Amino acid sequence: MEGFLSTVENVNNAINSFVWGLPMLILLVGTGILMTCLTRFFQISHIKHWLSNTIGGIFKDSHVTAHTEKEDTQISQFQSLCTALAATIGTGNIAGVAVAIASGGPGAIFWMWIVAFFGMMTNFSENVLGIFYRRRNEKNEWCGGAMYYLSDGLGSKKGCRQIGSILAVLFSVFCIFASFGIGNMGQINSIAVNMNTVFGIPTIITGLFLMVVAGLVIVGGLKRIASVTEKLVPFMAVLYVFFALVVCVVHIDQFGAVFTSIIKGAFGMRAVGGGIVGSGVAMAVQFGMKRGVFSNEAGLGSSVMVHSSSNVREPVVQGMWGIFEVFADTIIVCSITAFAVLSSGLVDLETGAVISEQVSTALVAEAFSSVFGKFGSAFIAIAILLFAFSTVLGWSQYGSKAFEYLFGRKTIKFYHVIFVAFIVVGATMDLTLAWDLSDTFNGMMAIPNLIGVVTLSGTVMKITHNYVQRKILGQDVKPMLSAIDDIQQLHEKELKTKEETAEETA
Questions:
Q1: Is the pLDDT of residue 439 over 80?
Q2: CA pair distance 190, 386, nearest whole angstrom
Q3: Within 13 A of 128's CA, how many CA atoms are on the CB side?
Q4: CA separation (Å) from 21 to 30, 295, 328, 435?
């Protein structure tokens, strides 16, 4: 058995080094650059518009947050964002940032920003395609995601029908495996270890408790998951950001040195840990980009599956929520975590070497403890609990949608039961190999997804241009809302009715 596990580990390491190697990082960032150029730098040129229609819309447009009727299987735009953020704002924002700094030096944070900047438009494109190619199942629920725009979008191109179907199946298989690893056992294990270390709670107790709570939420389906995440995500994100900002404010005198360290480390003006300059830059680029992708998942095609369940009619509107998702996850939460760690004296800002003996989550806990004492460590343990558990809820939806695509809607309950049962497994076992395997599957999801985004980039460009013409420039052109004629016609009627109602109200 030991020999078999060793073989699996060696094979996985070989695949993982390719999946998360330089070619993949180039493909991920390259896709973001391509979509940024094709949409004419939408994340900058229309920043006021997308902020107004996402976070701004929460306060001025009741439709953004309004719950759908009980029999309506759709969820609100805000619920779709919270469920997606539930899966992306996780241990990557705490442990991932610490690992990036420890492995790549402060300069890794700069490259995390770069991958997030272009990742905004990758996520935007995924959501646009998700809404444009989504369809209804027999329960009248929306079904969308990379598997649908691969099979129906890429598959509709001349000579690509078979390759589109194959890539859709591969994406779904990789998504299911990743949902059990990074989306379940890895997160639960982080919670159980933290609860045991800080509060002395046995891992089996943590596992059983979380299994019961998760079971009650997950078996209730997407609407119950969404109703939980729309309360949990804003609460935990605001609370975490508040305490992290307090740490930053206490060490405000270090901000100049921190920013200088990030910029110099990114371009090799200072070597990481006293090593050679070229090596330092390579490590900063690699770990910054890799952890950036892990943090916001732009390019993996995961969050689009829940974004596609939104009650929105305009593909670009949901695309803008994708931009905000990456912005909130990496530019805001990860940056504040990084500044809290770097300003706390745990890293030599001259060399980039970590002075503290702590690693991963414990490094962030030590930064918080420098201001809050023992409460700092306890708070991070609670934050990990909330962040990681919400990630489990989000990924349960991703896995169930992939399972539904492969085996039909009637099999979803079976997936839910297995998924919930694995929570106890995750809490009690050594997950080194399981984490490495799921890490690989997570990356392998990106390959078919990015192929779909790149080959359908022209479609994204046309839909975006169409939206800009109508909504920003005020031109009277036919909207591009769905690739399916029946849905296109229905959405056109709904939009027309909404516009007429708005005119009458005005």
A1: no
A2: 11
A3: 27
A4: 14, 17, 26, 17
Of 229-233, 409-413, 434-438, 441-445, the one with minimum mean pLDDT is 434-438
CA dist., res. 190 & res. 389, Å (int): 10
Q: Render pLDDT for 373-399 as a digit per residue (tens, 0 to 9).
A: 888 888 888 888 888 888 888 888 888
Q: Which amino acid appears at position 326 of this protein?
A: V
Matching residue, tokens 């759908």: 68
Angle between helices 374-407 and 412-428 (to 10 degrees): 150
> Which pTM value belongs to this model?
0.85
Whether residue 272 contacts residue 279, with contact meaning beta carbons closer than 8 Å, is answered with yes
CB-based burial label for 135 (10 Å; 0-12, 13-18, 19+): middle
Per-residue tokens: 483 = 């690739």
Q: Which residues contact 360 (CB under 8 A, 6 or more apart)?
A: 95, 98, 99, 102
pLDDT of residue 34: 94
**Two tokens at 371?**
């201001």
**78 contacts 84 by C-beta, under 8 angstroms:** no
Helix (H) or strand (E) holding 143, with range, is: strand 142-143
Sign of CA dihedral 354, 355, 359, 360: negative
pLDDT of residue 452: 93
List alpha helices for 219-372, DSSP H: 222-250, 255-266, 277-296, 304-307, 315-326, 335-342, 360-372
Q: How far is CA 497 from CA 139, 191, 334, 500, in A?
A: 25, 48, 42, 5
With 50 as the cut, is the pLDDT of residue 338 above it? yes
Q: Are 368 and 380 in contact (CB under 8 A)?
A: yes
Question: DSSP assignment, residue 314?
Answer: -
Burial 430-451 (b: 16+ CB within 10 A, else e): ebeebbbbbbbbbbbbbbbbbb
- Contact between 140 and 222 (Cβ < 8 Å): no
